[in-house]
Specification:
Elements (H helix, E strand, L loop, with lengths): L2 H7 L2 E7 L6 H10 L9 H6 L6 H12 L5 H17 L2 E8 L1 H5 L5 H18 L3 E9 L4 H11 L8 E5 L11 H9 L3 E6 L5 H9 L5 E4 L7 H9 L3 E4 L1 H6 L11 H6 L3 E4 L4 H4 L3 H12 L3 H13 L5 H7 L1
Parallel strand pairs: 1-2, 2-3, 3-4, 4-5, 5-6, 6-7, 7-8
Helix pairs in contact: 1-15, 5-7
This protein binds adenine and zinc ion (ZN).
Length: 326
């Protein structure tokens, strides 16, 4: 079979998807209408034309504005259900979904509204779509350690509905060690730990995510190639990187997709995976990330198999999830 067909048909796990980043312009308009909100854009096309970014911050400003139409439990359910139905078509068998509670609680939405809506969609996807889906609560790193602790406290009664915590938002100037104590507390709670590091930020942030936060996976991590000792460590310890090619292209992390370093990471023996990050904003879901980065950089069928294998191996899926896929 041709490589693009193989990529689309191959079973895979998605480990780096921000649910607010799967909010399509059509759903933004539908939710704005349902919730009686006025948008500063006249049409879906006008909103879409504002999606021109050239770094992480310019994207984040629009991403947080888009998320402001999410108000009710049903809104969060509809959002997650739409993503999961779309992921099923891309042969995703397992998804670990990031969400940013602080962007919602800051607008007066209760954290249980967020978590209950997302969790209901995940639970239904097991029977309705045959997908296992779990939730990872992300702390916004541009906010304070105190704000992160308050968020963890609010989430405390709902911890059985999340599998782990992560760290996202503006990377530069907000090193992982700012959240050392929050992550230590989450670790005591038995939560899995991940963090965005080395997307735009330096290799030093990947070191501190590993050594100070004690994370199990690195989200993005593509800047690791600038540090040979770090590359060796990531390879030897089989620490997964959740790489997002179209995101890196749209945020100008690489001059072009052809210059993406995914092949270099795999050649160095790192447990890289392919993911979609914010597919509604970056022009494609997971299969589009696979087909475009393979076409642009000339990766092989063998590397496709390795990426899919890595995605399951690096997941936090349990035995009940694994039984569901069989
Ligand atoms: N939040 C949503 N997408 C993100 C990304 N690519 N980096 C950091 N924070 C994010
Ligand atoms: Zn991300």
């Amino acid at each position: 079979a041709r490589l693009p067909e193989l990529l689309r048909a191959m079973p895979k796990a998605e480990l780096h998807i921000h649910i607010e980043g799967s909010l399509e312009p059509e759903l933004i308009f539908a939710l704005a209408q349902r919730n009686g909100l006025q948008l500063p854009y006249a049409s879906v096309a006008e909103l879409r034309s504002a999606y021109a970014f050239c770094n992480l911050q310019s994207f984040l400003d629009i991403y947080y504005a888009g998320a402001s139409v999410l108000r009710h439990e049903q809104d969060f359910y509809d959002l997650a259900h739409a993503y999961l139905a779309r992921a099923a078509r891309d042969r995703v068998l397992h998804a670990e979904i990031f969400f940013d509670p602080q962007t919602h609680t800051a607008r007066g939405v209760a954290i249980e509204t967020v978590i209950d809506g997302l969790h209901r969609a995940c639970a239904e996807a097991r029977t309705g779509l045959g997908i296992s889906a779990t939730l990872i609560l992300c702390f916004l790193r541009h906010l304070s350690e105190k704000a992160a602790f308050e968020t963890l406290e609010q989430a405390e009664p709902l911890l059985d509905k999340i599998v782990g915590v992560g760290l996202d938002s503006s990377e530069q100037g907000h090193p992982p060690e700012k959240f050392a104590r929050v992550f230590a507390r989450c670790r005591e709670r038995g939560l899995h730990l991940v963090a965005h590091a080395g997307e735009e930020g330096p290799p030093a942030y990947i070191w501190s995510a590993l050594d100070v936060l004690r994370v199990e996976r690195i989200d993005h991590g593509v800047q690791a190639v600038h540090d040979a000792a770090l590359m060796q460590r990531l390879a030897h310890q089989r620490i997964a990187l959740t790489v997002c090619p179209l995101s890196n292209q749209k945020l100008c992390v690489f001059p072009s997709l052809a210059q993406h370093n995914l092949g270099r990471l795999l050649d160095a023996g790192l447990a890289a995976t392919v993911n979609s990050d914010d597919p509604a904003y970056f022009g494609g879901y997971i299969n589009e990330n696979f087909t475009q980065v393979f076409a642009a950089t000339g990766l092989t069928a063998r590397q496709a198999y390795q990426l899919a294998f890595n995605s399951f191996e690096a997941s936090f899926a349990g035995n009940a999830d694994k039984r569901l896929w069989q």
